[in-house]
């Protein structure tokens, strides 16, 4: 009798008030905004004289507080800005008066930093999206280390770009694969909002990969605020990631499904069970969620699979699903 793949519904129960309180406990997740500074941001639409992408990004700085204020972290959310052109860099401390990477939104408002950053923004480069992806991954890790946060804590990366990659990796399929590798196993949620005239939607969408983030299109500033609000909705209900550790015959892996909240707390997982041996007719797989709702500690649940004759397969599969649902 062979082993193989088995589907199990894994659900984290968020019905108790203690669970909902836990979701919004702890420090706010940092937000990193990755800004396209390529020449294409200066393109104008037919009949218009104002560069489409540049205008949206400059105004976007000023719209951020209204959106972040509605999240669980509010104006205490740490923020930083990165840019990518031919190369990619974080905006350095002092690039404008009062700016420090990972300052709170409240501090940025108090120092009128966002107005200064808006005036400071310009676009004069080629577009190396791959360099921006590598920077975002490193910056997310640095944000966690800076505040001594757990490796499994949330960071939200928001891209503003037209996706017109002109140097480095330009194939959307390769960019998506690279992004998946960079973010795999982490609690970095990537959202992307397409801006500008000639948007390469496949490329912009590739930045989200399978991180559980949001993809939107903002041809103008009003649309940008709406799209960013959509990207922020999960963060209004939670500060925690939906992150699972899985151990089965295929090995160990960590999977992230976005922000953990009542509308996103269950997944159908494929678990791999080894072939039956002389040891017995049962083989196990382990699924654990990183943050225990009650204690804030890692927990795991051992799932046992019974090898059976083909005629009994359907009933056993239902039994396995029910066992997994009890997490």
Low-confidence stretches: 310-327
| Gross morphology | globular
Number of helices: 9
Percentage of residues in helical conformation? 25-40%
Radius of gyration of CA atoms, rounded to a whole number: 22 Å
- Gap between N and C termini, in Å? 28 Å
User: What is the H-and-E element order?
Assistant: EHEHEEEHHHEHEHEHEEEEEH
Mean pLDDT: 85
Percent strand: 25-35%
Q: Largest beta sheet, briefly?
A: 7 strands, mixed
Classify the secondary structure makeup into a structural class. alpha/beta
Q: Give the tally of β-strands.
A: 13
Written description of the protein model:
- By secondary structure, the chain is an alpha/beta fold.
- Helices cover 32% and strands 25% of the residues.
- It has helices spanning 17-23, 52-68, 105-110, 113-120, 129-146, 172-183, 201-208, 221-237, 313-325, and strands at residues 4-11, 31-36, 78-84, 88-90, 103-104, 155-161, 188-194, 215-217, 241-248, 251-259, 266-273, 282-289, 301-306.
- Strands 2, 3, 4, 5, 6, 7 and 8 form a seven-stranded mixed beta sheet that branches. Strands 10-9-12-13 form a four-stranded antiparallel beta sheet, covered by helices on one side. Strands 1-11 form a two-stranded antiparallel sheet.
- Helix 7 (201-208) links the parallel strand 7 (188-194) and strand 8.
- Helix 2 packs parallel to helix 8, helix 5 packs parallel to helix 6 and helix 6 (172-183) runs parallel beside helix 7.
- The protein is globular and about 70 Å long.
- It starts with a strand and ends with a helix.
- The model is unreliable at 310-327 (pLDDT under 50).
